[in-house]
Please model this.
Amino acid sequence: MHFLKKYIPKYWKNFTVAVLFLTAESLCELALPTLMALIIDVGVANRDLSYVLRMGGFMLLITAVGAIAASVRNILASRVSQAFGTELRSDLFARIGQMSFTSLDRFERASLITRMTNDVTQVQNFINGLMRVFVKAPLICIGSIILAARLDPGLARILYIIVPVVALFLALNMKIGFTRFTLVQKALDRMNSVMREYLSGVRVVKAFNRFDYEQEKFNNANLEYQAGSIHAMRATSVFNPASALTVNLGIIAVLWLGGLGVQAGDQQVGVVMAFINYTTQILFTLMLISMVVNLFIRARASAVRISEVFAQADPMESSEPERELKREPEQVSEQGKAGSLEAGYERGRIDFEEVSFSYPGASGEPVLRQISFTCLPGQTVGMIGSTGSGKSTLVSLIPRFYDVTSGRVKIGGVDVNAQDPQALRERIAIVPQKTMLFTGTFMENIRWGNEKADEAEAAHYARMAEADGFITSFPEGYDTVVGQRGVNLSGGQKQRVSIARALIRKPDILILDDCTSAVDVATEGRIKTALKAYAGGVTCLLIAQRISSVADADHIIVMDEGAIAGQGTHEHLLRTCRVYQEIYRSQLGKEA
Ligand SMILES: Nc1ncnc2c1ncn2[C@@H]1O[C@H](COP(=O)(O)OP(=O)(O)OP(=O)(O)O)[C@@H](O)[C@H]1O
Model:
């Protein structure tokens, strides 16, 4: 839970001020029973009305001071806990944003949402609770014991018994509650996960009429959450009544022994009443502690889950920083020469050298085996192969979404492991296989790729991606709001908007991962012609299912079961590559 340390310097001052007001509030509360004992034993016993009024007025004043201190403390407590919660959520969001795919894959997406929301709230509630009992509880508890002992050392022995017993109950409560509340948070994760999956697949669920099945899945997760919560509550519920019972037994003992003392004339009524007040205050404080202990148990379970996100070691963070843009010229030409006829610095050049890759945590055969190829700047390289042959995985190594298991991926002649992932990605634009648009207008979605680009540029690239036609057919044109994930668009329309979003980035390397699969052949042809004009010095990697999509590429790579089955031009592959011939035959129905 080291992550909490970061917030201490920022909030300790307000926290301390809140605690000071809390101390004032506690001192006021502590003084009241003694004042009351004086009113009864001195004022009432001696029928001294002016003493009663004076002390009564003093009690009122002290109560008012206590109330003001409590209000200020409440305001400060809310301010500190809310500000802390907001900052923690924001830091978590930033941390998740920095995570590599390797780290992200370790967490369920729904679990990350629960951690950012519910878990942060639990910690925030605890901090708030802490400012209600921190200092106050021990102060009132110890102060009550001392003041009660001063009033009557004999009766105080009862307190020496009940306080440790109640403290033991609190400790047990904490120990038993922690594991159970951790399980409750996990059950909440599962429930969120079912909900999230349902919402993202709602069309499929409706198309297959499987709502009942999904409903049952949700109900099961919901019941599991309920059972977990009940189990946790049940396991810890015994401790509060047990504490109350212990204290009440103590009060009975005080009444009994005090009553005997009063009867025998050794004891004053006011003292017995003050003693009972102090005992009740102790009970109240211990209850308060118990409430905060419960908050603490949940907060601790939540803080552990939050710290897992912060502690997620990211292999990419530990690698060397970017240095390729500042390389010495001699070094550049040497690296540039390797495997290339052209020397010098080539930002769009891609080299794969004997690359093998397995997804972190996955067992079995590597997804990619001994991949070697080179894309020269400005080349259009097609990539084709059966489904699951590793095409998307291969291109995900270029922006360093994952680190290779062995071999080297070089961009611009420099190993990607020696480059800062963020700077590297600045130079690459990807149109992913699964199109993703964000809530906002067409214009916002396209300019999302490059904030600096103006509206005319956005329209220019939309035309290039064959998106301008259908965008302008909407009454509000580029200002039409695209629903969440582009829900109000067809698959092909979404693909074209995401192509425009990539083009506006003006990258050194453009990766198009099967992004015209939902576009008709004629439109695809026009996009490709436009891309040729656009490409210039841009290296374009084009993954496709249709051979016609890659046939005119400068170079084609054929993937088969994680390895390269052949590479070269269309004609060369038709002559030499069996896998390519098979794809060609299956698609065109003619012999190669
Ligand atoms: N995040 C992941 N974790 C573990 N394995 C994965 C992951 N993503 C893909 N795989 C596996 O890697 C292999 C290659 O998948 P990949 O998506 O790269 O293939 P592809 O050639 O792009 O397929 P398609 O043409 O269907 O998109 C598959 O066997 C797949 O199961």
In short: The two ends are 64 Å apart (CA to CA). Residues 105, 359, 362, 367, 385, 387-393, 433 surround adenosine-5'-triphosphate (CB under 6 Å). The first helix runs from residue 8 to 44.
